[in-house]
Amino acid sequence: MTVSVAASTPASALGTVRSGLGRMGTTGVVYLALVGIVAAGTAVAALNGQNLLATANLVDTLTRSSLLGFIAVGQTLVILCRSLDLSVGYVVALSSVVAATTMAGDPARIWLGVVAVLAVSALIGLVNGLVITKLRVNAFIATLGMGLVIKGYLDTLYQGPAGEVPVAFQVFGYTRVGVLPLSTAVLIVVAVLAIVFLRATRTGYHMYAVGGDAEVARMSGIRVDRPVITAHVLCSVAAGVAGLLIAARFGTGSSLVYGSGYELESIAAVVLGGTYLLGGRGGVAGTVAGVLILAVLDTLFNVVGVDPFFKDVLRGVIVITAVAIYARRGGGTAHPPRFSRGAHQRPPAPDAPPGTGAGPAAEHRPDTTRPARDPTATAKDHADPAGRGGRT
Amino acid sequence: MSAAGTAPDPPVLRMRGISKSFLGGRVLHGVDLDLHPGEVHALVGENGAGKSTLMKILAGVHRADGGTVELSGERVSFEHPVQAQRAGVSTVFQEFNLLPERSVAENVYLGREPRRGGRVDAHRMAADTDRLLDELGVSGISARTRVGSLSVAEQQIVEVAKALSHDARIISMDEPTSALAGHEVELLYALVGRLRERGVAVLYVSHRLTEVFDLCERITVLKDGERAGTVDADETTSAELIRMMVGRSISAFFPEPVEGTAPGPVRLEVADGGNEHLDGITLRARGGEIVGLAGLQGSGRTELAHALFGLRRFTRGEMWVDGRRVVLRSPHRAVRAGVALVTEDRKTEGLALNQSVLANGRLVLDAVMGVRAGERARRLPGLFSSLELVHRDSAQEVRYLSGGNQQKVVLAKWLATDPGVIVLDEPTRGIDVGAKRAVYTLVRRLAASGVAIILISSELTEVLGLADRTLVLHDGRIAGELPGGASEEAVMALATGHGHPTEVP
């Protein structure tokens, strides 16, 4: 997001690539990474005599991504507001149970089941949002607590599979058009709705504002609780949809899926997609790419037969690396270096006014070497629109 | 109150008898203020005189305990900044109310985004913003630019555009130039001119009297929460204003060196130091010496302070402290070598605001001195009293102290480590005139005790009034060195790159 990159200086090839990436924006970089990973993955699979792009593998990848996709899209909204939802995994499990037990194998009760799931999950999100905004409980704690409450409820009442999902609803889990599973199509619709919501509604704008700086939002007349509560409701509902998908796939309510670690995986997908964990920057499009990256890797590891434990190691490394890269790209106004780090530069001749003529100084002006990033700049760089120390 | 219209030129703002107390302490008492359309009105006074509080009452951040506020003759009472904005009163605070990750247009219309058919009309929002920027005579900022990529001056323009988008009749600006570089100040002057042409009344709060005389027609002076007077700028002088603000004359402002202060051995020496912001830095400071560092904003003053303190170390050249060659890779090493840095931004870099005075005093000791920390910490109460720190007790949280007293805590924190070299980066920023003098006296006393002092300040008078000699930076290089008592013009010539560097003696 570095804006001005003067193309005049004899920049190295690497520098050119970097400045190109700089202009692209984080979402573009995430999609570029996705393409790169698909390409590299295809090559690796080919070396093992496999085709990563075979229909079965594509279907596998997309199916894999839709479940996490719903959760991660919801999680994106919450994280944009500088909040967090650690209860989503439990909401998924509860939703699958609510769906299966409400439907109870009766095709006529499918809609009842869907409505019940959406209502229950919306209610959970509402409680999360209210506890965080009105009772001012830290989001981490509030949603962790909510997760434990749901876990306790499930563990007490449902030891194993519960209820039954009618075959008519299982199509949500298994139908596909070409390589595109129905669940992925629904995910795409949900993701597009979320993007439109963020880009074209006031509430969407205000989510960015509250996540960016709640005080600025408040001083601008925004009722700062509302976007946060809305985000939590939508996030829970998205998790509810994921629960419906689980129910459709398993044909029954599975209370134990809360152990799958969806909450953390969804957060990983969100930050992998370029959304800033502390809110105010990012978006749903990046999250979708983040989810796809994780799914492609999973499929690849399966195809190639990587040890499942090593698989997790790799995924962890990838997420951390990605976030480290985003952090270096940074958003703030980094102070451009004036001189190179290593090589010594001769000061201008003593009788020439420094830095006016064509001396070595002129080549090293900030305007000609605007960097993609400043390696030494930190978030608290003094070039930050600071001068903020002077208030009493 | 009588309706407007009886007076020939009705003021757009009339404040009468404004009073305000915080926790029993009286901050404002019976202050009157009138603003007329198209007038630029300065509000000056020491920090703590009540300028900020008066401004915040006008902005709807605080509510007055007593007195009345009228806008065009109509009595108003704001409970929230948004109410004030809707009534046409906007405030550009020192800390901008902007979202760096959002575009200019999104910031200008934050909280009241125009809608069409339920959807935010991003197109109209951008067009309206561009029109506002046009009217302000601003080029080079697009409505779609991300605010975080703008300079401080440009962000200020965005704030003003935001105010105008509210159809502001009154815009108050809090120390608007404090973060601007020299040429950016010109931009601000032009901006204020445009506002005046539009008939907007500008309340201009500033410490800098030059600006006040350049821009303002009338000046209201606050002293200790009361109005010391309102004068026409044409009919007064800065000496007169300072007298009204502090009741003492300017010549007594900078204390003389403590008797017996003599240059000792060289405590700090840098030969040809450089990194990505600096080049060819050669300097030497003796114990007892105060070496000033002047230069425009962005000339490398703060970068040099950071390099001396190991924050962004010199990657070229050599550095010695007390005759020992040092490579300061981190602040930790710098502290161990005997270098202290009093940072520019006291609140975020100098202090843990929600911790006690004592805990702050011990910060560096605990971090660097290890087992000897406890022993040294016993000297802190003594240091506090020798610095004349005004505090309830050493358990008081630092955030409740005034700016000047906070700065004393920062100094105590460093003095406890017995530094040989103290780098002071803008040591008097944002503290009032009285407290400034206390800091100056302290700097003199430190010099007398044999410490080498590097004094960085954007206030030239401060550098020239205190330093034994002054190095002027320009574009990351030392443009020249001037002896104590040099003229401001000489410094400016070097700082702007038009002077001839003098030989280092």
From TrEMBL, chain A:
Residue stretches of biased makeup (Basic and acidic residues): 362-385
Localization per record: Cell membrane
Residue ranges of the region described as Disordered: 334-392
Quote any Pfam family the record assigns.
Answer: BPD_transp_2
GO cellular component, as recorded: plasma membrane
The signal peptide stretch is none
**What transmembrane ranges does the database entry give?**
28-49, 61-80, 87-104, 110-130, 137-154, 174-198, 228-250, 284-301
Keywords per UniProt: Cell inner membrane, Cell membrane, Membrane, Transmembrane, Transmembrane helix, Transport
Membrane-protein topology: Multi-pass membrane protein
Q: Does the keyword Transmembrane helix apply?
A: yes
Q: Its domain of life?
A: Bacteria
Any one GO MF term held by the record is: transmembrane transporter activity
Tell me the PANTHER family matching this sequence. Answer: ABC TRANSPORTER PERMEASE PROTEIN YPHD-RELATED-RELATED (PTHR32196), AUTOINDUCER 2 IMPORT SYSTEM PERMEASE PROTEIN LSRD (PTHR32196:SF71)
Q: What is this protein called?
A: Autoinducer 2 import system permease protein LsrD
